Amino acid sequence: MSISDKYIQEFKKIYKDKYGEELTDEKAREMGENLVGFFGILYDLHVKSLKIEEKLKTRPNGFDLTEVGNGQYTCLICGNQIQGKEGWRDKYGNKCLMCQKAVDDNKIEGWILEDTDNWYKSWEISNKLNLHSATIRKMIREGKLKAHIVPNIDGKPFEYLFVAEENYTMLPPKDFEKRNMLLMSSGEFFTEKAPSLYKADFSKLKIAYINTATKKVPDDTYSKKRIERMKELKWNFKIIDIAKFEENKLYEELNEIDIIYVEGGNTFHLLDQIRKKNFTQLVKGKLNRGVLYAGSSAGSYVVCPTIEMSTWTNPDKFDRCGIVDFRGMNLIPFIIKAHVTPKIKKEIQDKIKQSKFEVKLLTDKQALLIHNGEVRLVD
Predict the structure, then answer these.
(1) Averaged pLDDT for residues 73-87
(2) How far is the C-alpha of 275 from the C-alpha of 302, rounded, in Å?
(3) CATH for 176-378?
(4) Torsion, CA 252, CA 253, CA 257, CA 263, rounded to 10
(5) Cα–Cα distance for residue pair 167/204, rounded to 1 Å
(6) Contact (Cβ atoms closer than 8 angstroms) between residue 351 and residue 310
(7) Which of 188-197, 209-218, 314-323 is predicted least confidently?
(8) Among candidates 374, 315, 368, which has minimal Cα distance to 338?
(9) Which residues is 150 bridged to in the sheet?
(10) Would you tell me how many other CB atoms lie within 10 Å of the CB of residue 316?
(11) What is the structure's pLDDT at 1?
(12) Is 2 a residue whose pLDDT tops 80?
């Protein structure tokens, strides 16, 4: 694709302003044409993806890969290369016929495939835990690892999937070691202690204040106080209720943000909106790019594997917004109980024993600092 001389000169100026290097016309043209070609490929892929989405609206059970396009594809579950009638495409992605049958037969449930960051394949387990495949199979038989099994035509295991939250004692959520998080009981910790904890001037950072959980509470005075305090500190923040944004607009709102702070309130309403807006994937992407996730109370609960602890005390305090599936964002391998006092600690002992997850207790003066896979209690 030919680029006009006018645009070549503009490109040279932009490049010099950003990188301090003067490009020759020849080099600038080469780089520009490569860039245009790259975006052309991205555009074609986007158009193709939109066409597939439109087909799935009228054919939700999917179709074979001849309708997706020529070429080879990778099975979402087993990783084998497939093409044409060897594979199937549905809302979860491309799969070989063996794995697709396991989905159709409910051997692999849809909720597992909805979040590929939530499960490991056999080879990933081998690499992460440094285990031989025979050892993994033995651990499955002994009940030390729980696996979802894709059977072959003879009914024997063809592939195994391991869900992180079902194997939480051995498998952390994927990319946990990359996550930078501050999980608090009270939001006051954020304004009064977080800057010194991180040795940072928060007035020079861009903060997204997510107030969604405050929209379904009888009294949001705590949120108004937090906003006033951040104004007093002259912090650069914007207030975002994720319920008010379409998914793509939400991505735009959170562009170039340094800190995502999720305020407390109604955990059920917050989780409901997180699911509707695909907020989990957005947060994961931001975390992988070094953004700090800070949450207080409900904002801490939703990143756990489950929000069951929000029902341990005052279970009827908030409208549950139709939430019956308590699975959280699963960004951490344990659960948190906030606002703990000596009295509450005594009251919830049975709940702690019954939970399949490790439970970390926080008073309103405490928080968990997560960095490089390490979890530290701070106060």
Answers:
(1) 93
(2) 11
(3) 3.40.50.880
(4) -140
(5) 40
(6) no
(7) 314-323
(8) 368
(9) 159
(10) 7
(11) 58
(12) no
